[in-house]
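Hey, can you fold this?
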Amino acid sequence: MEERVYSQVENHVRTITFYSPKANSLTAKMLHDLADQFRTAAMDKETKFIVFQSEGDGVFSAGASFDEMLEIHDPITARKFFLGFARVIWEMINAPKFIFTRVQGKTIGGAVGLIAASDYVFASSAAEVRLSEYSIGIGPFVIAPILEKKMGKSALMELSINTDFHSAEWAFTKGLFNNVAPSIQKMDEELAQFLLKIHANSAEASMDLKHMFWEDLAKDFAIFGIRADFTAKNLLTDYTQNLMKGFFKK
């Protein structure tokens, strides 16, 4: 099955969904398409709320496509690839509508940043999170601003340095998740009930609240470009290149 990004609207809720056959990892094209989908949702008068999700009952996303990163050999391409995550985040935080993200399973790397760019997150108890970047010689530089905004610097430091998986409960206590359910079915029920509860709330108030939540980070895209340069530099070191090739051969 081929990778895909698509959306559908029902009862004024636009659901944006992504899928790739390799653990829902994100390629440059998928990131481009996600940014387009959020931009479209932001402008669509029929869309009041946005639900963001991946396909399947397994992992939410393995983060950046490892296969694609292995093909990057110059700083311009590297910067462009990692800016793909920044552009999705930018569209998410600037969309004048609440984004509710549904996290059914494990999430790694850049995809954790996309969760952090959501306004409200529903997760299952299987939704562990991990920033794996430091383990391969890079860092979560591009997504760090959004993670710090959502969880605070202390949690960002812990998640960045300790590259093991952290539980859904940990993510809940740090503010990354807003609701953790014991199963995917229960998570979906609670998400549906919550959307029904707030469906009639003021669109104008929602827009103003959204602006208030993100106004400090949504002012200047430049910070993401600076951080993408950090990531590109680290990705192209001999240490990281050799380490990634070694992982690929396993």
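Oh, and this one too while you're at it.
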Amino acid sequence: MRELKALTEISRSPPPFPDDAARGSGQPVVVIPGFLSPEISTARLREFLAHQGFTPYDWAQSLNLGPTRKNLAGLEAHIEKIARAHGSRVSLIGQSLGGVIAREMARRRPDLVAQIITLVTPIRPPVATPLAPLAHIASLFWDEETHPVLLRASQPVSVPLTAIITSVDGMVDWRASVPDSDPLTEIITVAGPHTTMGSHPEAQRVIAARLAAVH
């Protein structure tokens, strides 16, 4: 109920973008939505990124039903195209389950991925969540590639990773979102709801700072 209230409030009146956030110089960024979320769910975060001088892209795969073969192949091709257009590697931001997909992309194509930023991403199955009945329905669309991706979600990646978590997460057990300690991994706690983390000013400051550090 707390998450639904936060989502309703932020949809009606989103907080202003932080005026002290770092600015970019056109760095490409792909934003991957959360579970059962469409591309429009990341529109506010992409608007912030564009406002700060980055070049944001949606993930171009429509509704996120999970790390299916179709989604992974389509996203990889999308990132390849963006990397060629910019002549540089691409940063990935994954909201919730979108972060699992971002981590998998980094494992498969570290040559294309500059860094990963995950927002409240559960990586340690099984994950306790009120969305479990919907996850069961979504699993009907999964293929043999999906389960292995979910099971290795917590394995380290070879690119810099910033994991933004919240201890007041109302959608998943926040402890499932904490990655293992690693020289390439930074964990940052932001006190805010799971569903609206991409619109949280403090999370936006962190995101902009990490993206601006990539040249």
